[in-house]
Design brief:
The chain is 58% helix and 12% strand. It is an alpha/beta fold. It has 2 domains: 115 residues, Resolvase, N-terminal catalytic domain (Rossmann fold, 3-Layer(aba) Sandwich), CATH 3.40.50.1390; 41 residues. The N and C termini lie far apart (48 Å).
C-alpha cells in the first residue's frame, strides 16, 4: 500500500498543504495522513502514519523537510519504518530507500538540509539582533494565553476592566470573558 504523509508548520500554509495532497493523490496514495504542526513539536499524525504502516507498504512524502527536522530525527523515523519493513519515497528528490543508493543519497541530503536549516536560523538570529540594536524589533505578537495571563495579572493588582481593556488593546468583552473563565475554575 502507498501511504502519504503531508505536513505544514502553520495553518497559514494552506496552499502548500493543498499542493502536497494533490501530489500524494496523483502518486496513488491510498491513505494520506495530514497535520499542521511545527516540525519541532509533537507530531501525532506522523506517529499514526508509522503505526498504520505494514510490511511491504511504502511511505511517500513530497519533500524531505515535510518528514524530518534533523538527520537524527530522520534516522529515528527510518529505523521505525525499517523495523516494520516499510520503505520510504521522497518524491521531489527521487529517493527510494528500498535501494542502497537511495539510502546513501538520503543520508547525504538530510545532512545538507539540516545544515541549511541551521544556517537559516543563524541568519534569523543575526537579523533579530540587528533589529533590536536599531530599536525596530517588537518580538512576537502575544498569544491568547499570554494575553489571559496579562489580564489576570493586571486584575490582581487592582486594575478595572476598562483600564485593562485600554492598556492591552483588548475589547471589554474579551477582558470580561478571561476574568470570568479564571474565576470559574
Amino acid at each position: 500500500m502507498l501511504i502519504g504523509y503531508a505536513r505544514t508548520s502553520t495553518f497559514d500554509q494552506a496552499a502548500g498543504l493543498d499542493a502536497q495532497l494533490r501530489e500524494l493523490k496523483r502518486l496513488g496514495c491510498e491513505k494520506i495522513f495530514v497535520e499542521q504542526v511545527s516540525a519541532v513539536g509533537p507530531r501525532a499524525a506522523l506517529d499514526a502514519t508509522i503505526e498504520f504502516a505494514r510490511e511491504g507498504d511504502v511511505l511517500i512524502v513530497t519533500k524531505l523537510d515535510r518528514l524530518a527536522r534533523s538527520v537524527k530525527h530522520l534516522w529515528d523515523v527510518l529505523d521505525r519504518l525499517r523495523s516494520k519493513a516499510v520503505g520510504i519515497r521522497i518524491e521531489n528528490l527521487g529517493i527510494d530507500t528500498s535501494t542502497a543508493t537511495g539510502k546513501l543519497m538520503l543520508s547525504i541530503l538530510a545532512g545538507v538540509a539540516e545544515f541549511e536549516r541551521e544556517m537559516m536560523l543563524e541568519r534569523q538570529r543575526e537579523g533579530i539582533a540587528k533589529a533590536r540594536a536599531e530599536g525596530r524589533y517588537r518580538g512576537r505578537k502575544p498569544t491568547a494565553r499570554n494575553r489571559a495571563v496579562e489580564v489576570l495579572e493586571l486584575r490582581a493588582v487592582g486594575y478595572s476592566m476598562n483600564q485593562i481593556s485600554g492598556r492591552l488593546g483588548l475589547g471589554k468583552g474579551s477582558v470580561a470573558r478571561i476574568i470570568k473563565a479564571a474565576t470559574a475554575v
